Automatic annotation (TrEMBL):
Protein name: Solute carrier family 16 member 3a
Record has Transmembrane helix as a keyword: yes
Annotated ranges, domain Major facilitator superfamily (MFS) profile: 21-411
Top-level taxonomic group: Eukaryota
Membrane-topology descriptor: Multi-pass membrane protein
């Protein structure tokens, strides 16, 4: 975890770092946007659902909670399906599930139907898209992977800025039933994104061994033997306890200070706008030759930055201070979003990433369900938003300390060794390209190796 894992990808296929990979990156950008922004976009319809089914806000809040639980908690299932059937078919089936869940929800007659259709079915469909898209991105990019991760992660704030206003327009013009139906049609784009995930062709010698390995290990638990993976999983679990809390409560915090609803909602727009540019920028920085072997420490810095922002933001007393908080939170939140999966990819490598991400998401699912509700209970007890932001900041800073200190003490690999590994990987890549060029020239000359005599 102190450096990067150098590998040639699944079945010995070297990541092309471009070409069709840019199409894969675009698909991952769209899928990331749908996966992270959709639970928030659905919340636009909550007031209509409360009025329609005569339920409380806490009842409708379960829709987003179940959706997020499916997105995170089905990680191991996604890993097994990807290792068995491949990314493309899993994503296309997931797109059908996600779309059908929204379409069926438009005919719902009770809140339970909404839970099952949007929470379970659409949540499962998004999960079957989100994880495989990251796996394919990891296979197509190696040297440019930090930048690719940053660009793909930018799909989340872009989609959030688009889907939430769109949901309000759909609700106003067509009602919640019509809105769900149209959003279901939009989710069919997940199938198109899945079709972009063209598998890399393995060499003939590595093809059979790759298939046998995939069948033997549908879910590779050997990642738990990796100290770096264990440290990352523990730190990530602590991180998600507080990471998502401020965006949930900042609008209510502004209203509590006496600001208008529209003015308070503008804070999320500011946060999202900053986030859009922070993620690709952080990806570029993480890809620098000196920084990349030490990306885990950059990730730790991003977490400390985010947690400290929460701690300072807890002292906000007016709207201007909340605007400043959202600007700095957007920068730090974007850094965390760009780096969290890049660091995991660097720890476990391409071959084990499909299993590792599933297991990490499963552990994080518990924390995701515990974090915001716990903050809500603290708010009910104290009636003060300051303590909510203090708790969130403390949890995020703690995760950074666990990650950085544990990595420094327990991971033997030094940054110098990681630099050497990266350089070795580059040399291997150049040799592979040279071999390919010689082979092509060999075939072009009718099987005769070119030399000064035969060339004449």
């Amino acid at each position: 975890m102190g450096g990067v894992v150098v590998d040639d990808g699944v079945g010995g296929v070297k990541a092309p770092d471009g070409g069709w990979g840019w199409a894969v990156l675009f698909g991952c950008f769209v899928i990331t946007g749908f996966s992270y922004a959709f639970p928030k976009a659905v919340s636009v319809f909550f007031k209509e659902l409360i009025r329609e089914f005569s339920v409380g806000y806490s009842d409708t809040a379960w829709i987003s909670s179940i959706l997020l639980a499916m997105l995170y908690g089905t990680g191991p299932l996604c890993s097994v399906l990807v290792n068995r059937f491949g990314c493309r078919p899993v994503m296309m089936v997931g797109g059908l599930f996600a779309a059908s869940g929204m379409v069926l929800a438009s005919f719902a007659r009770s809140i339970i139907h909404i839970y099952l259709c949007i929470g379970v079915l659409t949540g499962l469909g998004l999960a079957l898209n989100f994880q495989p898209s990251l796996i394919m991105l990891n296979r197509y990019f190696s040297e440019k992977r930090p930048l690719a991760n940053g660009l793909a992660a930018a799909g989340s704030p872009v989609a959030l800025c688009c889907l939430s206003p769109l949901g309000q327009v759909l609700q106003y013009r067509y009602g919640w039933r019509g809105g769900f139906l149209i959003l279901g049609g939009m989710l069919l784009n997940c199938c198109a994104c899945g079709a972009l995930m063209r598998p890399l062709t393995a060499p003939k010698k590595a093809e059979n061994s790759g298939i046998e390995e995939a069948k033997a290990k549908l879910l590779d638990f050997s990642v738990f033997k990796d100290r770096g993976f264990l440290i990352y999983t523990i730190a990530a679990s602590i991180m998600v306890l507080g990471l998502f809390v401020p965006p949930v409560f900042v609008v209510s915090y502004a209203k509590e200070l006496g600001n208008e609803d529209t003015k308070s909602a503008l804070l999320l727009t500011i946060l999202g706008f900053i986030d859009i540019f922070a993620r690709p920028t952080c990806g570029i920085i993480a890809g620098l030759k000196w920084v990349r072997p030490r990306c885990v420490y950059l990730f730790s810095f991003a977490l400390i930055f985010n947690g400290t922002t929460d701690l300072i933001g807890s002292q906000s007393k007016d709207y201007a201070s909340l605007v400043v908080f959202c600007i700095f939170f957007g920068i730090s939140y974007g850094m965390v979003g760009a780096l969290q999966f890049e660091v995991l990819m660097a720890i476990v490598g391409t071959q084990k990433f499909s299993s590792a991400i599933g297991l990490v998401l499963l552990v994080e699912a518990i924390a995701v369900l515990v974090g915001p509700p716990s903050a809500g209970r603290l708010l009910d007890y104290t009636k003060n938003y300051m303590f909510v932001f203090l708790l969130a900041g403390t949890e995020v800073v703690l995760s950074a300390l666990v990650l950085a200190i544990s990595n420094f003490l327990f991971i033997k690999k030094k940054p110098q060794e990681a630099d050497a590994a990266v350089e070795a990987g580059e040399v291997v890549g150049e040799l592979e390209q040279l071999k390919t060029a010689v082979h092509d020239e060999h075939v072009h000359n009718g099987g005769v190796s070119p030399n000064p005599e035969t060339s004449l």
